[in-house]
Task: structure prediction
Amino acid sequence: MLLERQFGEIINVKNLTIEAPEGAGFDMRREFEALKSSTFYDGRRKRWRWGLDNAQNPDRDRAYRASPELLALFINGQFQNEGIAEEYATLKRTPIHNAEKKMWYPQNPRMGVSMENHFYTQDQLLDILVELRLDRNLGHNKYEALMNNSNFRWQGYWYHQVLDRGFFGIAQPDGHTSHDQLIGIFVESFFDKEKAQERYDQLKGSDFHVRRGQYSFWCLYLEDTQRPDNVPVISSNNELMSILVHAQFDREQARVEYEALKKTKLFDHAKRQWIENVAIEDSTMKMRNLNRTSYVQLLDILVRNAIRQPNPQFETQTPSLPEARNF
Result:
């Protein structure tokens, strides 16, 4: 079965049981507020910390990132509408947003380090998710514009980031990550679920989804798969985003995949947190990075909600997207 192929000897699918928290007892608002009251959130600055170390100490880097801020806004919009537009407008007035280009920097400037030439595809796609909660037509138009921007997308793949060199308006795209491709498919599922499912299946059959020994997983960077000496890394954000996408088409199977993933070393059962990643060495999963990010914990809330029930807030029809490029 799928999970036997994906997680090898770790999961016995026949004996797998679904745990109660993802059933009727799950409350998205409660889980979100609980996370917001934890150390992952800086109540004084009213910003999400990037992450914690294994001892639960906050990241010393005081810079805040666009990705958890935007993802939190999207989650907040799932159970309430009031105040979201104001929070979004406030975030746009911070240094992580370029008002002229209407794009997001990955983080605010810190210690003299400027991010003004960096734009991550992930952040622009997360922005579209927020726009969908506020104005579906505007979100649709933003997605079309990004889809047709060759600086961010080429031959069906999303670039990881764009480095705007500032010389004659020249931009230099850089790298391809699985996470960007998966977020793109998740966004597309709100417009065209059938096309999104086709893309997801195609992506799973591409070099973004790799196999090392008994494990199959999403690679961090596509370019890494070309390096035979590269140590394979399984990241929680890729695997969770994949389950979130899969839940749009097959909620029951996505639920089984989620419970299987929780039984791997990516999940810290004592603290009920996802760690950043594990490495595959000598055909076994080994702890690599015990840090845990706010982004992944937020993503977990979204996944748990998606496998619990359909999302009626996105059931309405939207205009068709232009013909998309094939992978």
